[in-house]
Design goal:
The complex is a heterodimer of chains A (252) and B (171). Chain A is 27% helix and 20% strand. By secondary structure, chain A is α+β, with helices and mostly antiparallel strands. Chain A folds into two domains: 3-60; 72-219, Beta Barrel (L,D-transpeptidase catalytic domain-like). In chain A, strand 2 and strand 3 form a beta hairpin. Chain A is extended. Chain B is mainly α. Chain B has two domains: 1-84, Rna Polymerase Sigma Factor, Chain: A (Orthogonal Bundle); 91-163, Arc Repressor Mutant, subunit A, CATH 1.10.10. In chain B, helix 1 runs antiparallel to helix 2. Classes of the chains: A alpha+beta (252), B mainly alpha (171). The interface between A and B is large, with 37 and 48 residues. Chain B: Residues 13-76 form the RNA polymerase sigma-70 region domain. Chain B: Keywords: DNA-binding, Sigma factor, Transcription, Transcription regulation. Chain B: This is SigE family RNA polymerase sigma factor.
């Protein structure tokens, strides 16, 4: 190796080191903005493709019976185990590009998404949820069956409505769903599985509005833990009447 | 990688990477631009970068590829307007290093990248091969030819006292 060349190059590089023209916060902001724009573009592209396909099918086949809800079969298919049949991503409506990312605050025990702050049960965060990580929405299950596990002597079963499956890399999933069942059923899950318990109202709203591929950033604001351990419905834009409760009553 | 860790990584690595990219591009503004852009792209994959254990190498590789891509665009643009010269927008290096910068600029991209990665960034020949996607033998040839070309250029430009002499070989 040529020491003279290396020395000359190092001197050249050191003489031309420059401080960052932008603060790091601005770099992060740009990256997030670009990421949102990219996702919106993908969604709009999917929506356009879907609309085009539907138009083509409508114009050429005319095979669908009037009055039949095409979602009906898909809805019933989601009832089963967690991996049974996650719903396909919705592509028809896209939120504005300036929509904020979802943020899971482990300190405040809140999940914030699209301006709505939802209380999150703090007992089942899993072992790998740590600030700075990012979860990605991988699938959505309208109903998920938690089966009993004989190996753990857990004989409880529960159907969990409005479950959003989140993952980070190839790690075990984190499920966000309605806490409208006996929480002892959570013992059926792998010990590494995380669980974000939401009220039924919040879970339904989150399930309806979040889309596959969206990110949930994990933070940990240093604040005293909230006094109430059970989640309460938040003041969100969902005017629909409550169809379940946030108690531990098993849902049938 | 948390926000604080990313910020610290950015603050520590940005000047170093800018210097390395300057050696590669010969243009400080260009070096800053491509390093900045590489950091913006790094934010989205910060967790994977941290897991891989070499975030700075990733940012440098992306910045170099961006620089190559910009060169190619600029060259195409120059071919279209070959009758007019590019305006000089950034101040050049001092006279003592101008010859080295000019000599580096004369090297073909692949040779310049190999020289900078091996002699400035201290990557082994195998690592350079891995980063550039070229066989080890090809990298050795590029290094050898790059050094020879630099020595020739600098011998012409600085006949009295060249900045360095071609004496070693790739080990």
């Amino acid at each position: 190796m040529s020491d003279e060349l290396a020395t000359a190059l190092r001197e050249l590089a050191e003489a031309n080191q420059a401080t960052p023209p932008l603060p790091a916060a601005e770099v992060r902001t740009r990256a997030r903005r670009r990421s949102r724009r990219r996702r919106t573009t993908v969604r709009l592209g999917l929506a356009t493709s879907a609309a085009g396909m539907l138009a083509t099918i409508g114009l050429t086949v005319h095979a669908e019976e009037p009055g039949q809800d095409p979602r009906a079969s898909a809805e019933s298919a989601t009832i089963g185990t967690p991996t049974s049949s996650p719903r396909a991503p919705e592509a028809v409506t896209a939120r504005p590009a300036d929509t904020e990312e979802a943020v899971l605050d482990l300190g405040r025990h809140t999940l914030t998404f699209d301006g709505r702050v939802m209380r999150v049960d703090s007992h089942f965060f899993g072992t790998f949820l740590s600030p700075g990580r990012e979860l990605t929405v991988r699938a959505k299950h309208e109903v998920m069956l938690l089966r009993g596990d004989k190996r753990t002597e857990n004989r409880y079963e529960a159907k969990v409505p409005y479950v959003v499956e989140l993952r980070t890399g190839d790690r075990p999933p984190v499920y966000a769903g309605a806490l409208a069942f006996d929480t002892r059923s959570l013992g059926a899950l792998d010990v590494r599985t995380g669980w974000l318990g939401l009220s039924v109202n919040d879970a339904r709203w989150f399930y309806t509005h979040v889309r596959r591929g969206e990110h949930v950033e994990i933070t940990a604001t240093a604040t005293p833990p909230p006094p109430a351990p059970t989640p309460a419905p938040s003041d969100g834009p969902d005017p629909a009447p409550e169809t379940g409760t946030a108690t531990s009553r098993p849902r049938t | 990688m948390t926000e604080d860790e990313f910020d610290a990584f950015y603050a520590a690595a940005f000047p170093r990477l800018t210097g390395q990219l300057f050696a590669f591009t010969g243009d400080l503004g260009e070096a800053q631009d491509v390093v900045q852009e590489a950091f913006v792209r790094a934010w989205d994959r910060r967790h994977k970068l941290q897991a891989d254990g070499a975030p700075e190498a990733w940012v440098r590789t992306v910045a170099m590829r961006l620089a190559v891509s910009r060169w190619r665009r600029a060259r195409r643009w120059l071919e279209l307007v070959r009758h007019s010269a590019l305006p000089e927008t950034t101040p050049g290096p001092g006279p003592e290093r101008a010859a080295l910068v000019a000599a580096l600029r004369e090297l073909p991209e692949h040779q310049r990248m190999a020289v900078v990665l091996h002699h400035l960034c201290d990557l082994s020949v195998e690592q350079v091969a891995s980063e550039t996607g070229a066989p080890v033998g090809t990298v050795k040839v590029r290094l050898s030819r790059g050094r020879a070309a630099l020595a020739k250029q600098l011998a012409v430009d600085e006949a009295e006292e060249p900045a360095w002499r071609e004496g070693g070989r790739v080990g």
